[in-house]
Structures are given as C-alpha cells and as structure tokens.
Amino acid sequence: MAPSDHSAARRSGIPAKALVIFFLIAGAAPLLAAWASGIEPESHWSELGAGLAMISGAVFFLQFWSSGRFETLSGSVGIDRTMGFHRIAAVVALLVAIAHPLAPLVPVFFDRPRGVFVLLSGMLVRPRLLSGVLSLAGLVVLVGFALLRTRRGVRYESWRATHGPLSIVVAGLILHHALTSGEYSSAPLPKGVWLLLGAGAILTLFSAYIIRPWRMWRQGWVVESVEPMADHVWQMILRAPQRLPFRFRAGQFVWLTIAPNTPPFHDHPFSIASSPKMLPRLRLIIREAGDCTDSFGAIEPNRRVAIDGPHGAFVLPSDDAHVVMIVGGVGVAPVVGILEEAADTGDTRAFRLLYAGRTPTALAGTQLIDGFAQRLNLRVSKIVDDLGEPPAFEQGPINRRHIEGLLSGLELKETYCLVCGPAAMMEVVTDALLALGVPAERILYERFDYAAGRGVLDKGRRNQALAVFAMLLLLAALFALR
Fold it and tell me: pTM here?
C-alpha cells in the first residue's frame, strides 16, 4: 500500500516543457519585436551585436523570476533545478553581453587588427553608451562574486545583502541602455517589450522584498526547542499557531529566518524532518556550517521565526515501487520526514536505507530511524569513514560495492532511489546507480548548492540548460542574417 496522495500540499507547477517554451519566447521577445519593427538592418555583424545584446538583456530580466522562489515555476521540476538554471543563465548572460560589442568589430579585426582596440576604447568612453558600459561592469561583479563566494569564504548573509540590490542596479542600467541606445531603441514594439520585462522584474522584487517577508512574519512561528542530535548537529522544533494552515509533503524544505534577523537577507534553506501529522510542529535537523547555524544551539524557546515554504520536489513517489534511500551527513533530514510520513500512513512497501557519515557520532536521527524500522518494512545499513570499534557499521567511504549490495534482489525498473547529502557524495552515488542499471528517471535528488556538478545526471541537466540558450543564440544569428 502506497501512502495517501498529498499532492495538494504543494502546487504541481508548470511542466518542464512548458517552462522551456515560456523561457524561449520571453528570452527572444525583444529580438522578435525588433525583427517585426520593419527597421532595415545594417551589416550582418552589427545586427548580430544587437541581437546578442537583446538576448543577454532579456535573459537577465528573466533571472528575477527564476530566483524568486515561485512554486508555479519550480514546483514541477524542483527549485534546485530552477536555481541551477539561474546560475548557468547568469554566466551565459555575461558572456553574451561581452560578445555583444565585439561582434560588430569582427570585420575590422580582419582588415586592421589594431584598429579594433581604438574603436573599442572609443565605445567605452562614449556618453551615450555609459549605461551599457556600467551595466556590463556590474554584471561582471555580480556574476563573479556569486561564483567565487563559496571559495573565498564570503558569508552567506553578506552575499545575500549585496546580490539583490546590485541586481536591481544592473537591471536599471540595462533597461536604460536598451531604451536609449541603438537603432531599435525608439521603435514602439521593442520599447514596449523592454518595459514589460522591466515591469515583470519589479513585480518579482515587490513579492520577494515586501509581500513575502510580511506573510512570513505574520504566520506566528516560534522555536519550541533546540536539542543536540549528533556532533555539531541540532534538532530544532518549530511551532505554529493551531489556526495556521500549512501543508507540505515530507522531504520538502523551508527557508528559515530567526528574529531579530529579517528575510530575505538572512534566510537559509532547511529540509523538513517530520511528517505532516506532526503539525502544528515542524522538526528540522541542522548541521553547523560556519555561518549563523553555529549559534543555533543557544537559541532560547519562543524565539520568533519566519518560514517561507514549502519548496522542493524531493518527495516520496506515490506508486507501489520499492524505495532505496542513500544519504550522507545531515542529508538524512528529509529522509527522516519521508520515513515518518510513510510510517504514519501505513506504507507497506520495502524501504532500504544506506546512511553514511564520517564517524558514528556524526550520524543524526538514528534513534528516530530505528523507531521507524519497527513500523515499516525498512532495512537500514550504516557506513562510517572512521570505523572504530562498533560492529554495527560498515567501513566507508561509500562506494559502488555498498550500493550494489543495497540494490541486491530488487527489480531496478520498479525501484525509486532517493539520494541526499554532500554534493560530492551525490555525484558518486548517482553515477554508481546509473552504472548499475537504475533508470535516470528513477533517481531523485536535490542539490542545495545549485551548482551543475560533475556527475552524469548533473551534466545532463547542464546540457539541457545549454541547449535552451543555444536556441536563443541561433535566433540571434538568424536575426543577423535576415
């Protein structure tokens, strides 16, 4: 018996194919409007430069939508995929923006290479192009800081506090450049499209910085308790007023802000580690990560908190397939919630859990999991890198042999594999699952780091995103050749 269908707990969201079509239409809208304006093109290279500028600008304005945590957009594919797409789109927008002023100079480069630098330096100091130059510089800072922040030890809160405001400044500069520069800037149709894109960005900002924080605080969530669960891992219980309607599927996550901090600059994502039947309480399992989480152990009861959610598509499939779960470290949090939901709904499927950690004392939630094993058809294996004396653990780190043993006896085409943990571990595990014959559509995972990753599935996601941008660039080429 599979669990009852709680799909109404979250909006299903726009299907992936529809999202791609919407993005292509919106991303190409300025270019198509310029095409339809009837303005005679100049040279092919100058038109290519104009087309690249329009593609880059439109993609940047669409960034406000993909980063806005709109479940209508991310509910079907998962917010990690929309945010991963957002990350790739930022790099593409930057590279295309850099190529935009260079394209018209290609013929000059072949005739007199040194003349390119003279023309380019002249463009950079031309007053009419100032907003374009500043927007490009701002885009370099914006994207560069976002890509380097994790490697340079920049605090998450500092990045959040600068990323949004700088994005607003860059968007304003791009809009000004689009409306004042180039032969298409005065045409009514392209101008209307740019104003529409700008208005859409303003709507997302109003939602993210005003409406959503107001809704988050008025819900009335508080901290009920904070207790140690493992080495540097805390269990936090949140409590909402009885009257508050809050629906979710176990495995989803929330963005949490703890008073006196304010969203959206101080919110962090944490997986829900409880069943819907535990409401009006939520359980979170949180590892100290060198930011504000290091002080969570000192939080007193009744501290006000604000949550945004639920988000995410990492939930238990509702058919009768067997379920294999492979988790590492605090990645156990959503799995604790999923197992509790399965136990509460009387799920009789076969569950297998492989839980990996550095040491036995680093494994959180083991008592909860042992309790679920009494209520479910659940087999649990534990792996630690530092084995020590306890005989109840296998020697880590996790490898293909462990996974092969876990899958033994199961029909892989009738089994779902849920993977959650550190990024490097998930790449190793998902690659091993694919190599052992598990179909890609049967492997479910979410990445909170939003990076494309080096695993086969991660590369597949990245290539799908790049294919979308290749279509937009093809349109820019056709625009130049018309």
Answer: 0.87
